[in-house]
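Problem 3 from the worked examples.
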Amino acid sequence: MQSQKNLRSVGIIHKAHSLKGALKVSFEAFFIPYLSQVSHFYLLQNALPLPYFVEEICPLGAHYLLKFQDIDAREQAFALHGAEIYVDITQFKGLEKLLEQFDTGQLIGFEVFDEETNELIGVVDDILHYPAQELMQVLVDGKELLININEETLVAIDVETKKCWVALPEGYLETFLS
């Protein structure tokens, strides 16, 4: 039986996609580079991790199409709707170290400052995870501002003071909030 200690959620099953058991899923942005190495995922059933072996994974717009071995009917796939997808992080070289560095979910509640002016932009309300990117949802005077989380835009983080600094394209803030 797989120990849950090393399991990490890397995605979610959205819905059945075909009559032959394929699933529409999304993965955390940090895990996408590891998809080609996956032989199986774990799904929790009755609080126990059960392995599901991968037959095929392929991009499907902003999501992925995932086909498990032995899931050959829409009804079987439908039963997995909403399930979180887990992996054993020790099976992927470098993944443990990557996850130890910083979890973007820690940014919720951080104050966001403009790198150039050092002015407060707003507070991180949520982190949105998409297959190709992660976004900070920042509340600015009651409006929602979305900022990519990458090395170019998120230029500094101070975990102790719960502050971060971003480099936004010229006019982005004004355009997005108008």
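Problem 4, a separate protein:
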Amino acid sequence: MSTLEYQQVHEAATIRARSHPTRPSPQDVEDIAQETVARFAKQEPGSIENPAAWANIVAGNLCVNLARSPGRRQAEMDEDDGPRALNRFLVGSSSSWGAIVREQAGVLLAMLTPRERELVQLIAEDTPQSEIAEIMGYANADSVKVTLNRIRKKIKDGADSAGLATHWEEHSRPY
């Protein structure tokens, strides 16, 4: 395989990773591009008709695998965005009556499992439910909706028992 083909694969993988909905970090983008080139090198010479198209598919799959990897989303949530993400999930991003204070949101967020917090984070990032289903391994977007409703009920029950107001009737984002 020629140097030009390796360059095409690297460039196509980099572009795909940068534009992927999972929004990998710049370091992850480079890792994905390098992994794509390494996989390309293992292929039989001439077995791939369009190296750029092949790299696009492989890089997209690597992005999804990275998003599914244990700890990635949890690390993002641990960067002190958890209460804000929960707040956006509960009341939307454009609420005029204010939001649940950070301390209250942190308490409610702690009630959720790591997988539920990951789902809340994806919703807070405005990730489409169909992509959430793909990233998190749900059957389809309807399964994501059912899980979101269960999470909202869990949060509401916890808020009610703690005497916190959630203002569900004013929620701007229907699920």
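Solution to problem 4. The mean pLDDT is 76. The chain has two domains: 3-68, 73-170.
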